[in-house]
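Help needed: design a sequence for this.
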């Protein structure tokens, strides 16, 4: 998960539209487009969840309960379940207005006849620190209910929020987080994505999810491959017609440094789609990787995945190579802690591509200069995000890396599949 719920530190608030006493079938404005979900061209029974870009990442509609309560959910490859705001505030379901604004999307558990308390199986849990609220408590109670997304409708274990402090000043444009992190052997349902739970229950035909991004500036100017949306998260399969050539499959690794330099939780969380990065180059110039920890490529298409992932040292090399100069930005292109640099817009085509190789294949994946230079009005800025110090330890491979690529997650074999996107 990310600091998506601490938006006041990073982003301006968006508007939500519905009362706290119920989840909404459709949100206003751009979120409304999320609801128009359709089947895909891939596996029979799979489903294309249409995604809308938000400052936090991508959002799509899901439903929970009987009758179904539909609401926008933040779709997150790095979270371990279905987190959802409920009426509960500081342990009391009657104090909803003490924590939530009137226009906050929530799931009203009292209105679902199939809602079931699962605290006997899974005791409540609190993380502090966390990447929802940093040093405020993130507390969840475990429950189960029917989750419906497209053709899939099955009982799953969910994380029912017990909100611990007042967020009435800033309503969020979603009611929760649809987590899609991998499930490891021995994990119980309290730390399994609801997609994985539904696939195990037979509600999805295949253990795959797939993503591609119809970004502004892509060759798909009408976003037709995303059915007019900003992106697609295909559930229960993938679309062969979007694969150029063939998929390259990579085993994910256990990489504890993630909880040190990237997503810091207590208790720690390690369920990430992390690959072993074996080579990083700027053009043909090899950049050093951390020899003591190894180098982890964490797949994450939310806000932390914005910006080309580089080490501090490789970023310094890129700055020197491109002749970049420091700039202070009111609205930077990513939320990393590194400084930002501007470049001459007329020389971008001469910059080196950023290239990556992962353990398992010799295939080289690259981010082109046009995809790592962000044009902000008439200024061109290096959109790079760094973690740690010195040589490469970890990076978030998401929105910027995913441009012109097709990303498939295999929940059965815990593999990441990559292909060039067949626009």
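Sure. Designed sequence:
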């Amino acid at each position: 998960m990310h600091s998506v719920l601490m938006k006041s530190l990073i982003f301006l608030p968006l508007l939500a539209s519905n009362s706290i006493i119920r989840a909404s079938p459709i949100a206003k404005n751009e979120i409304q487009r999320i609801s128009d979900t359709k089947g895909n061209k891939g596996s029979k029974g799979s489903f294309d969840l249409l995604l809308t870009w938000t400052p936090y990442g991508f959002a799509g509609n899901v439903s929970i309960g009987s009758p179904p309560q539909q609401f926008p959910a933040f779709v997150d490859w790095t979270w371990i379940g279905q987190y959802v705001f409920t009426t509960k505030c500081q342990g009391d379901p009657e104090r909803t207005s003490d924590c939530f604004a009137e226009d906050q999307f929530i799931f009203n558990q009292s209105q679902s006849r199939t809602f079931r308390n699962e605290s006997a199986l899974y005791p409540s849990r609190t993380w502090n620190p966390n990447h929802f609220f940093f040093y405020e408590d993130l507390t969840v109670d475990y429950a189960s209910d029917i989750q419906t997304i497209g053709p899939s409708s099955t009982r799953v274990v969910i994380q029912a929020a017990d909100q611990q402090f007042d967020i009435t000043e800033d309503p969020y444009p979603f009611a929760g987080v649809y987590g899609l992190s991998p499930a490891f052997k021995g994990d119980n349902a309290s730390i399994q994505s609801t997609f994985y739970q539904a696939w195990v229950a037979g509600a999805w035909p295949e253990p795959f999810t797939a993503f591609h991004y119809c970004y502004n500036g892509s060759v798909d100017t009408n976003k037709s491959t995303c059915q007019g949306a900003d992106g697609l998260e295909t559930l229960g399969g993938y679309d062969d017609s979007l694969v150029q050539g063939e998929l390259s499959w990579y085993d994910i690794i256990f990489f504890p440094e993630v909880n040190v330099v990237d997503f810091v939780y207590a208790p720690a969380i390690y369920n990430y789609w992390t690959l072993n990065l074996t080579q990083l180059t700027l053009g043909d110039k090899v950049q050093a990787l951390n020899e003591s920890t190894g180098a982890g490529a964490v797949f994450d298409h939310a806000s932390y995945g914005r910006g080309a992932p580089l080490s501090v040292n490789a970023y310094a090399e890129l700055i020197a190579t491109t002749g970049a100069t420091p700039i202070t930005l009111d609205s930077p292109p990513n939320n990393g802690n590194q400084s930002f640099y501007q470049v001459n817009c007329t020389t971008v085509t001469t910059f080196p591509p950023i290239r990556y190789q992962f353990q398992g294949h010799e295939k080289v994946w690259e981010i082109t200069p046009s995809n790592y230079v962000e044009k902000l009005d008439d200024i061109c800025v290096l959109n790079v995000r760094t973690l740690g110090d010195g040589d490469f330890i970890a990076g978030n491979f998401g929105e910027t890396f995913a441009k012109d690529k097709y990303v498939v997650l295999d929940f059965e074999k815990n593999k990441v599949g990559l292909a060039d996107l067949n626009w």
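Residues 283 and 352 are 5 Å apart (CA to CA).
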